[in-house]
Each structure stands twice: as structure tokens, then as C-alpha cells.
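Quick one, T. Sequence first:
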Amino acid sequence: MELAMPVRQIVAATLGAVLAAVPLAGVPAAAAPALQPALQPALQPALQPALQEVMFVGNNWEGTVDVIRARGDFGRIGRINVVPDRTQRLLEIYLNPIRLAFYLGIQQGPGEGHDQLVDDMYTTPDGTALVASRPSFADVVSVDLATGDIRWRFPVSGFRSDHMAVSPDGRTVAVSASTSNTVHVLDIVTGRQLGSFQAGDKPHENIYTRDGRRLWNMSIGEVNTALDDPSQDWSKGDRRITIADTSTFQVSKVIDMRTRLDAFGRSDLSDAVRPAILTPDESRLYFQVSFFAGLVEYDVAADRITRVKELPLNPATSPDRTTWVNDSRHHGLSISPDGSKLCVAGTMDDYATVVDRATLAQGPLVTASKPYWATVSGDGLSCVISESGADRVSAISFATGQRIASVPVGDHPQRVRVGQVPTGWTAPV
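C-alpha cells:
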């Protein structure tokens, strides 16, 4: 591995020199220099390792990430330890009374008595490193996929890191720092902060627009108190969507869903926007809110709520809101590549279902154990959910709404993301 990069550089330099010195057959000498840049992309595949598409499953309570196939049987390929520095981090925490208080609060609150060791993850463009947020350690790290070593570490502001998003070009990663109400944007290769902006209370989900020029952040407010009765909703804090310009990191727009929900006649719904997705043309935003079994449709251009879909309640689910994890009822939402189907993780109701976007008619209720996330398979044909209560992920066909595969993973899987690793990759020992 130590010789691979220099060899590629030597090959590239040699080829470049040859192109510069040797006339191309049948091409006038004056025209050859203009053609040389066009030939470089053709040479690049020979200089870069081949990549294979995979899916990463973050096992939050275990501090590992399972790598599975992104389609087909979704079989497991390997496992990565994303807390190789766990002893060092814990020592730092236990020597700092303030950090220790927050660490224990995270453990007993959102962690349900467990450390939160991996929340979100993405790969670098060359597929050689996995970048992961680690809530209990309040940081983001880059783990070398060949050695398992940490390449860089970025401590977020405050005391907890949360959801991330990667830019369309794969070069930047945004992470929510939930106790400082900040979104940090980092260079995914070096870990250098490129900028940041302030969001509402407890920033959570992040979404880049397809051109990469805007970044949407959803703040969910305080979800760890027992003040869950609708009459106590005022105590949850400043919950809003913050949209920032990714070149200046200035906030360009703030959307208060409270006024939009009230105007639609649903003042009973929380305005804490949880998982959310934009349609392929970015004309609609679909999102889940705290305490609600269903989803909301928002017209981006018209700036208004257009439809609300209520989904079935599981009669076995306790009606006591304080028993629902982090104010969730449903938590996990994805959309098929053509924009025709939505996939919903009904977390506290123990099912997942595919919803037709045109009619909002739901498909079969697929039994699942505390599904915590929903994403799309590599081939776009399936919705992949994490079943945190059963330590497995399951694939559900967008076409039939039926489960087509299940794969065991580690302890308490949450986020699932598509990424890439070098072809033939094996996990570091």
C-alpha cells in the first residue's frame, strides 16, 4: 500500500511526458497539446483503484459499522470499529466534570442507557476512508478502511454530534452539533472546517440540495424531557428549518412549520421536523414530526403545507408519549429514485410501509422491530430499513411493498448510508 500511490504518480508523470513529447498519430503537432487534457480522464481509471458500491450500517450502541452489499442479497461484507480510540476518549471525559455530566446525560437520555458511538457515516470520494459522527464523544472521525486507524478527528462545538449529510460532489460533510445549535461543514478528506452556521434548538437532519448550493437543517428542539403533553409543547424550544448558502455559510431562509401547520388546520401536530426528504425535482418536502404516526407534504415554492397522511397506529404501542424514544413515533423516511414512492419507518409502531406519493395510499404494513431509519438500495429498487430492536436491516421492494431480504448486523443499528469501498475490500483486522 505504501508504494501504490507513488507508482501511480510516476505512471501519470511518465504518461504526461510521453504525451507532451511524442506527436499523436495523424494529429498535427500544433493540435496535440489541446488534446492532451482530453486524454487525461481516460487515463485516470488506470491510476485509481476500482470501487464497489456498498451500504454502511451504523451500530450505535456497539461502536461498529457493518458493510453490506448495496443490492441483491444485501449480505454482510465486513465490520469496522469506529471507536479504536475509545479508552483515550473516555479518559478525557472522566477527567472533565462538565464533559462527564453531558456524557452521562447522553447515555441515560437519547442513548437509553447506552453510549451513542456512531450516529451517521459517509465515505470519502476515493472510498478509502469512512467518516462518522460519534455523539457520546462529541466528534467526527475519519477511519482508514485499510488499516482501521483514525486519519483525522474533529471535535464539534458543544457536547454532542448528530446527523450528517454529504454534498452531491462528495467533497464536504455537514454535521449537526446538537447542544451548541451549530452546523459544521467540513472537508471530508482533511477534516478541516470550511464554515458553520447557527440553527434552531437541537439541530438534527441535514439535506443538501442537488446542486450543492443550499443546505437545509431541521432543528427538533428538546426531545429528552418528560414534558410531552401537547399543553407543554412551548417548553421544547426553537424548532425550525434553517437554509444556508454553502458558499458563504450565511442563512438565507428560516421556515417555521408552526405557522404553516396552523394554517393547514393541524395545530395539534408538533412542529419538530424529524427525518425529511426532498423530491427529485425539489418541489416538495416530505417530513415526519414528533409524536405523529404519518408524514407531512410541504410545497417548497408555495411555502405551504399541502397534505398530511396519517398512518395506522399499532394497538400494542403505549399511548404514553413519555415512553416513545426521543419524542419519536415514526422516524425514518426515504423516496424512490423516480419520486413515485415513499418509504416510512413506523418506529414505535413496529412496522414499515411503502406509500404511493400521488395518492398517499399506503401499501402492506411490514412488521419490523423498532425501525429507526429508511434509505434506498444501490439499484434504487428497494427501501432499506434498520431494525434497531432486532439488530438487523431489511429491504422492502418499492414495487410490491413486501420484504425481500433481511441481514443481521450489530447492536442497535440506526443510520444506513450508501457508499463505496475498493473492489475486493476486506475489513481491517
